[in-house]
Amino acid sequence: MTPEEFRRAGYAVVDWIADYWATLPQRPVTSQDPPGTVAAGLSAGPPARGEPVEAVLADLDKLVAPGLTHWQHPGFFGYFPANTSGPSVLGDLVSAGLGVQGMLWATGPACTELETVLLDWLADLLDLPARFRSTGRGGGVIQDSASSATLVATLVALHRAAGGRWRQAGVDRRYRVYASTEAHSSVEKAARIAGLGAEGVRLIEVDPATRAMSPAALRAAIEADRAAGLVPALVVATVGTTSTTAVDPLPELGPICAEHGVFLHVDAAYAGAAAVCPELRFGHAGLEYADSYCFDPHKWLLTGFDCDAFWVADAGELVEALTVLPEYLRNAATESGAVIDYRDWQVPLGRRFRALKLWFVLRWYGVEGLREHIRGGVALAAGFADRVRADERFELVADHPYALVCFRLRGPDGPNERLLAAVNATGRIYLTHTRVAGRHTLRLAVGAPQTTQAHVDEAWQLISHTATTLSPPPSRRS
Ligand SMILES: Cc1ncc(COP(=O)(O)O)c(C=O)c1O
Q: What are phi and psi of 186, to 5 degrees?
């Protein structure tokens, strides 16, 4: 493809994406086709001769788009949002066009330096503790996901627990990781990958009302493990749990970690983005105790997947835990000690120029634009929660400090399961569920970029009407 051919095809692809976004509201949020439909529509193998991009775009329309769950749809309220935006796509396009591999400073100096500066910008934007800034011993890096951030934090924590000898000594089955019963499954996965096995993870009970980790239970577990000769290595606290956006109490958990020399990682994958708004920083109280922290701009900050922002308070410790320097990567800049080589801050060697999409997003929206996006979502969710509260058939199952509302029909699970299936079957909205204290609970997460008051109103009307259809009020005559 020559640059001129690329220019023409590229305009066609950008047009396709713009048309896709413009027509999202007319599409069903989820695919209406049975499993295997997309696979059956594809040709048996690649074409013998090359085809024009128009042929691929036609198949995108015919085969791929109908087989998608449309995460950017204004009626998408499932899981947590996975925002993207025009500036994010354009930044990613530039990254793809440059094709830079930023494993070392020397393999793309701007790739590294832009990332370092942007992570400092973000740290300022979220008002993170000074210890995470690259101007001191700390610093930030972009990981592909919060799961990877948790894995990296686990590896550094094990390195620390082993007195800096983990690199040589490897896994010691006595190490223990602590997280609440509401923590994300990536904590257990990271422990497994790190070789600790499921028995290496202690799930700490939560306060039944707030769903937040109980400091007393954490202390008891750490003390019992120490008494048994085990080695508490890592506590993963969550700001904004996946089920209900509960916030673990860092001001109480932090001192326990400090007292016992346990590494504290804070996972704010979803809720961290809210801290761009000063009034939504309550979850970060006590963050000064944390050794590492992460949030996903790819969830709620208009930056397309994949982009997790991860900070550590001691970059030297992180590099010590992960670095391996083969001869073929040696270079003068690394040896000077004056540069960051981000390959030492992550699991893979290679890395994309992800900072570009973040840079495009930050510059396009500015601080105020990002705050508007977050505040808009929080206000829409609060309005929805008011509707639920005002309808005596329903109950709110948890607080809604951010833009997730957890609710259910009062009574048994069955009608809730049927309600969820029925509203999703309409294709007009999409919700997902969780279990809170064992009870089937519906989750409505606001955050898709095109979602407005009208879409949230429509969601409520659909939910309310469907609940009536499933369980009509008793007839007056009977
Ligand atoms: C609290 C929390 N941590 C981690 C994750 C995993 O995120 P990622 O897909 O970036 O690994 C999620 C996903 O929803 C989450 O809610």
A: -65, -20
**Nearest ligand 1 atom, CA 144:** 10
| pLDDT at 474 exceeding the cut of 80 | no
DSSP state of 79: S
Q: Report the alpha-carbon distance of residue 212 to residue 398 in Å, rounded.
A: 11
Residues of the chain with CATH 1.20.1340.10: 3-68
**Residue 93 structure tokens:** 């396009």
Cis amide leading into 59 (omega within 30): no
What strands, in cross-sheet order, belong to the sheet with 292-295? 139-143, 308-312, 292-295, 263-267, 231-238, 175-180, 201-204
In testing the pocket of ligand 1, which one of 143, 193, 270, 432 has its CB within 8 Å of the most ligand atoms? 270
Cβ 264 vs Cβ 254: under 8 Å: yes
CATH 3.40.640.10 residue ranges of the chain are 100-352
Please name the CATH architecture into which domain 100-352 falls.
Answer: 3-Layer(aba) Sandwich (3.40)
Q: What's the CA-to-centroid distance between 246 and ligand 1, angstroms?
A: 14
Tokens representing 192 are: 């497994």
Query: Which atom number of ligand 1 is nearest to the Cα of residue 308?
Result: 10
Q: CA 397 to CA 436: how far, in whole Å?
A: 7
The full length of the chain comes to: 478
Average pLDDT score over residue span 292-308? 98
Across the range 365-385, mean pLDDT stands at 98
**Distance from residue 416's CA to the centre of ligand 1 (Å):** 25
Predicted structure pTM score = 0.96
Q: What are phi and psi of 402, to 5 degrees?
A: -120, -120
In angstroms, what is the span from residue 126 Cα to ligand 1's centroid? 19
Residue bearing the bigger pLDDT, 478 or 299: 299
Question: Residues 222-281: pLDDT tens digits?
Answer: 999 999 999 999 999 999 999 999 999 999 999 999 999 999 999 999 999 999 999 999
pLDDT tens per residue, range 312-332: 999 999 999 999 999 999 999
Local structure of residue 308 (DSSP, 8 states): E
Residue 125 exposure: Cα atoms within 13 Å on the Cβ side: 22
- Of all residues in the chain, what percent are helix, strand and coil, respectively (each to 5)? 50, 15, 35
- CA-wise closest residue to 309 among 250, 268, 350: 268
Task: Give the N- to C-terminal CA distance of the chain in Å, as an integer.
Answer: 74
Residue 470 is predicted with a pLDDT of 86
**CATH code of the region 3-68:** 1.20.1340.10
Class of domain 360-469: alpha beta
Compute the distance between CA of residue 189 and CA of residue 177 in angstroms, rounded to an integer: 11
Q: Which residues pair with 266 in a beta bridge?
A: 237, 293
